[in-house]
Amino acid sequence: MPDLYDVAAIGNAIVDVIGPAPDSFLAENGLDKGAMMLVDQQRSQQLYSRMTPEIQASGGSAANTIAGLASFGGKGAFMGKVADDQLGELFARDMREIGARFENAPLAGGPATAVSMINVTPDGQRTMCTFLGASVQFTDDDVEKDTIEAAKIVYLEGYLFDAEAARRAFAKAAALAHGSGRMIALTLSDSFVVERHRGALLGFIEGQVDLLFANEAELKSLFETDSFDEAAEALRQRVKLAAVTRSEKGSVILSQGERLAVAAEPVEKVVDTTGAGDQYAAGFMFGLARGRPLQQCGKLASLAAAEVISHYGPRPQVPLKDLAASKGY
């Protein structure tokens, strides 16, 4: 089958609600700073009523990555589950407006479309409270065979590992991808995901994953060590390729033959770290899908992450294609 997509992603289809919040707001509402907490629909509505939302748009980690890919000029597809409601329509419309394929049928008669409330403190840290709603109803029946087989890279969102049905969908996607000679990429998403599913994740990584994305905390948690170098070497032995972000220290690209350091792109002011890892993955996979050298993939990734942390919201506000051209990337 011909290459129709640079990346096809599977993830939680979530509408993001983002707003600034003082540290006192977190304390008053019992929120752990910097964490991603799952809440029920009642708690979600309560927190929403107390927030000061500045942005409401389609989101979710993998969907944000596809938006970044599109900003670079790449061709992407997304698979995820929304409900047959107003927010579900908003999500679908947003994805299609950026040029991404999104054709999964909405869920009828079940939970509402997922919502993530992201409170951003003055230091740029994000505290996320997520009602997963319809997103966790994604099953292997929602995996589009033709789309998987037409994508150079199939990208899986670690957050979905919480749902048993979604893990079966991951297995199906991996089998289809590898059967067509495609690459499977996985992002660990969050240290809490790693802690909940360490054994299953390690098994999936060793057996199915070609490219792994993680941040330093997630990687250390995966291998239960405080040593970055020790964790990086353990990972290098298990996957063909990995990209590990280290905040202001930049990132490290690991392959079976080398270890490359990539400097962080300078940022005048960190406003909101929401989406930094998502956009890093977008830049890296865009470069990889287009045949760029690994060092240049890392530079594109760092550029995308730097752009998104300079403003509120998890998606680029400046076309990443233009930014890359201005830097000669």
Fill in the keyword field for this structure.
329 residues, alpha/beta, UDP-N-acetylmuramoyl-L-alanine:D-glutamate ligase, eight-stranded mixed beta sheet, five-stranded mixed beta sheet, 13 strands, 40% helix, globular
Produce the secondary structure layout.
Blueprint: E1 5-10, E2 14-20, H1 23-28, E3 36-38, H2 41-50, E4 55-59, H3 61-71, E5 76-79, H4 86-97, E6 114-120, E7 126-131, H5 145-149, E8 151-157, H6 164-179, E9 183-187, H7 191-208, E10 211-215, H8 216-223, H9 228-236, E11 241-245, E12 251-255, E13 259-262, H10 276-289, H11 294-308, H12 320-327
Q: Which bin fits the share of residues in helices? A: 40-55%
Biggest sheet: strands side by side, in what order? 5-1-8-9-10-11-12-13
Mean pLDDT over all positions: 94
CATH architecture: 3-Layer(aba) Sandwich
Which consecutive residue ranges, at least 5 long each, have pLDDT under 50? none
CA distance, first residue to last residue: 30 Å
Number of helices: 12
Give the structural class: alpha/beta
What is the gyration radius calculated from CA atoms? 18 Å
Strand count? 13
In the CATH scheme, the class would be Alpha Beta
The helix/strand order is EEHEHEHEHEEHEHEHEHHEEEHHH
| Domain count | 1
For this structure, the CATH topology is UDP-N-acetylmuramoyl-L-alanine:D-glutamate ligase
CATH level-four homologous superfamily name: Ribokinase
Biggest sheet details = 8 strands, mixed
Global morphology = globular
